[in-house]
Amino acid sequence: MFDLKITGGTVVDGTGADRFTADVGIKDGAIVEVRRRGPADPPLEGEAAETIDATGKFVAPGFVDIHTHYDGQVSWDSMLEPSSGHGVTTVVTGNCGVGFAPVRPGREDWLIGLMEGVEDIPGTALTEGISWGWESYPEYLDVIGDQHFAIDVGSQIAHGAVRAYAMGERGARNEPASSEDIAAMARIVQEAVEAGALGFSTSRTLGHRAIDGEPVPGTFAAEEELFGLGRAMAAGGRAVFELAPQGVAGEDIIGPKKELEWMTRLGREIDRPISFGMIQVDAAPDLWREQLDISAEAHAAGSQLYPQIAARPFGMLFGFPGHHAFTHRPTFRRLKAECSRDELAERLADPAVKAAILAEGDLPPDPNLLFDNMFALVQYSLERIYTLGEPPDYEPTPDRAVATIAAERGEDPLATLYDLMLERDASAMLMLPFFNYFYGNHDAIREMLLHPAGVVGLSDGGAHCGMICDASYPTFLLTHWARDRHRGDKLPLEYVIRKQSHDTAQLFGLSDRGVIQVGKKADLNVIDMDALTLHAPHMAYDLPAGGKRLVQGASGYDATIVTGVVTRRNGTDTGARPGRLVRGAR
Q1: Over the stretch 420-430, which tens digit does the pLDDT of each residue have?
Q2: Which ranges of the sequence are coiled-coil (predicted)?
Q3: Of the four, 227, 268, 306, 437, which is 20 to 30 A from 150 by CA?
Q4: What is the DSSP letter of 22?
Q5: What is residue 249's predicted lDDT score, i.e. its pLDDT?
């Protein structure tokens, strides 16, 4: 008697091996049988409480997203969307050196400001949504451990929270750590890993700043501090040292290679994986190749360096529901303050309103709005802002740039931008790729994805709520890279699935999942590849306190299964909550 059978599907098992037809039997949350079938073979024998006919569909492992920032969202969203709608069955939080534990009583708002500044998650949503109820990191895990989710959740301990807890205001303001400070932080980190943290994360990029403008605690940490915390992490058990390195956002093209030198030495000493964010930056568009080569050399020398790479261009989405070039125009500001969302869309479509906004100059940026000083600069980047379309095309050609469209129409480029944002009842989004698109195609990304040291990450599923929705990476990898790409070579479906199941799971020591094999955890997807569609991103207003975020859905997932339980069927949440906290390597 099985709890669940999946019959007749084409299994892509996550190892990278060729696909095969098989039936999968599941019992007590685990895969208990994988029966290969030829055309004339009978189905897997045995009754089942539920049977899914997967004929003509693909059966793949559940996807493991290792960079999500759901640290706050776990308090209010048991579904953990958007990730759970894209075949993800395990997420890892606590990235980029920001998190919510440990916390001194009374310092909760400071941690919220740190997360809001670095990751663009509305502070009002975090304030209303987070339940708190902990001080130490083990206590934080206990609170998460009492909850049930649609998918599994793993957590890392964050340098910013550790530094502020151990050093107080000195740590929060990035003052140098003494040997006593390092020892105190080391005790916290080791305790966290012993309690079940999957890793330790830090940030060293100047682009990561708290809501008050201060760099994340740990940004300027000396080598003694980094090595001390790395050793403590290793002493606690199997965990990953994760970081956003200097220069990852292009602010310093020398920093990334300097960072790799100490990372290599640390990895060799502690014998633990070290994973760092890596993207193509315009200031040095081929630097990423050197970083990959150094990572490969480090592996050969016994140091586990894993660049975390993005599956598509890394940038921002612009449109009237979110951020755009007219944010600073007086008429727009007045209408936004006066009108409901529906009323605002109607007013923006009024030719008189359009003429008024286009004729106005910009007001000064609002110092209380995160990134507000950036948005006026959009009007000077129209040759790099592209229409996204439905379904969205993340590898657009130059003819889809706003400046090109305006020239073809014989219009003022800002007027064209305005009209493009008015499409779909003023909900259309356009894309400005900051990174990973210097040469105007995805060839560099493909090379990164093919590198043996590269691991898919950086989705930021719960972060940058008003700017991106990259939680959809798993679906994009399947649709764009394995099926639809037309401007260059694709990637095999078997490879694409392995990269976001087996490989991401193995990095964090989660060897109980990520492949379809007997004895492994029954986390699976049944996917109609012919119907699989990534929908256009749109703004939702479903965060606590009415906060907004960009979300992006998908269709074509017939079923997502977590620990043997169907959690989503035909894209709809079933209400089942088999997901649990994942404590430590498996």
Answers
A1: 999 999 999 99
A2: none
A3: 306
A4: E
A5: 73
- CATH number of the 63-316+437-539 domain: 3.20.20.140
Q: b/e per residue, 294-315, with b = 16+ CB within 10 A? A: bbbebbeeebbbbbbbbbbbbb
- How many CA atoms within 13 Å lie on the side-chain side of 270? 26
Do the strands 30-36 and 152-158 form a parallel or antiparallel pair, or are they unpaired?
Answer: unpaired
User: What pLDDT sits at residue 247?
Assistant: 79
Instruction: Report the candidate in 306, 311, 305, 303 with the shortest Cα–Cα distance to residue 280.
Output: 311
What are the distances in angstroms from CA 178 to CA 167, 182, 204, 245? 10, 6, 19, 22
- State mean pLDDT over 335-357: 97
Could you give the CA distance from residue 540 to residue 124 in angstroms, rounded to a whole number?
16
More confident residue, 174 or 251: 174
How far is residue 110 from each of residues 28, 210, 322, measured CA to CA in Å?
43, 9, 25
Residue 117 has pLDDT above 70, yes or no: yes
Mean pLDDT, the chain, integer: 95
What span, in angstroms and rounded, lies between the C-alpha atoms of 318 and 110? 29
- Residue 374: pLDDT above 80? no
Coil, strand or helix at 52: strand
pLDDT digits (tens, 9 = 90+) for 79-97: 999 999 999 999 999 999 9
d(CA 572, CA 85): 8
Residue 387 has pLDDT above 90, yes or no: yes
Cβ burial 464-488 (10 Å sphere, 16+ → b, else e): bbbbbbbbbbbbbbbbbbbeebeee
Domain edges within the chain: 63-316+437-539, 323-434
Q: Give the amino acid at 36.
A: R
If you search the block for the tokens 């910009």, which residue do you land on? 362
The strand pair at 274-277 and 305-309 is best described as parallel
What backbone phi and psi angles, to 5 degrees, belong to 156? -115, 155
Phi, psi for 473 (deg, rounded to 5): -50, -45
Query: Given this model, what pLDDT does residue 377 score?
Result: 67
pLDDT at 51 over 70: yes
Instruction: Provide the pLDDT for residue 414.
Output: 96
**Residue 343 CB partners (closer than 8 Å, separation 6+):** none
> Residue 541: how many CA atoms within 13 Å on its side-chain side?
6
E runs forming strands in 127-188: 152-158
